Amino acid sequence: MNNLLQGKKGIIFGALNDKSIAWQVALKCHEQGAQIVLTNAPVAMRMGEINELSTICNAQVIPCDVSKNEDMDNLIDKSMEILGGKIDFILHSVGMSMNMRKGNDYLNLDYKFMHDTIDISAMSFHRLLASCYKKDAINEWGSVVALTYIAAQRVFPHYSEMAEAKSLLESVARSFGYHYGKTKKVRINTISQSPTKTTAGSGVKGFGDFFDYAAALSPLGNADAEQCAEYCALMFSDFSRMVTMQNLFHDGGFNNTGFSPDVFEIAKNPE
Question: In whole angstroms, what separates CA 222 from the centre of its chain?
């Protein structure tokens, strides 16, 4: 299907490099006819390759520290100025855990780090939506998607306090989704993606093991970043206009599968 997003305008958070889901979403939205603005934290912009993506997508880049109200307001104002009006879709692909970066396990969390994790990874979603709501920045029937993970519902020991952050993220989508839907017909959802070989995901302790486990358990296998981008494009399109306040699993069936013989083959034949 072509031109699924023709004439639509959006903001993509979180593209770092070509392994990022957000990077693939930006490419897919551009391919489907959308005009976009890219944003990331100033430090991530220095580390990543977002300027290369901006050239490919003919998109301007606006730095934004998602923990600061003034940065979020500035992003929304400048995006509407660049795009020439209200926004049709937004991807929130933001997550950071200093505890995991510093090697602090779940039983020995630094609570200041944990506060920062929740602020950046979850409260930023509320901050984004509140700024958009206040400025009436999103068109009616617009779509906002945040990326999450099944650790919000199930225990993955090395995912640490990011599990709490993702739980809050999903709650914000439901709660804000109600209010935004009632007043502006804006829909808000989260997509719970398979473990994906991004720069951030690969940094989680034991990532390779549960990537293989998920692939073995899921009847369709793991969804990759490009497939997630296709799903995001669908959620930004008018074909999903009655879907809101949902946590949508994009994981090859992992979330509903209790048993697969393939998992035992991994256990019997470890590499």
Answer: 17
Residue 22 lies inside a defined structural domain of this protein:
yes
Question: Do the Cβ atoms of 252 and 220 come closer than 8 Å?
Answer: yes
Query: What is d(CA 169, CA 65) in angstroms, rounded to the nearest whole number?
Result: 17
The answer to whether position 3 is within a domain reads: no
Give the pLDDT score at 267.
Answer: 63
Low-confidence ranges of the chain (pLDDT < 50): none
DSSP 3-state assignment of 172? helix
Using one digit for the tens of pLDDT, what is the confidence trace for 244-256? 999 999 999 999 9
Which pLDDT score is estimated for 44?
78
The strand pairing partners of 30, in sequence order, are: none
- Domain CATH code at residue 232: 3.40.50.720
Domain that holds residue 238: 9-268
Instruction: Answer yes or no: is 231 within a domain.
Output: yes
Cβ proximity of 73 and 131 under 8 Å: yes
Q: Are strands 87-92 and 9-13 parallel, antiparallel or unpaired?
A: parallel
What's the chain's length in residues?
271
Give domain status of residue 1, yes or no.
no
Tell me how many domains the chain contains: 1
Q: What is the pLDDT of residue 271?
A: 61
Residue-wise pLDDT tens digits, 137-147: 999 999 999 99
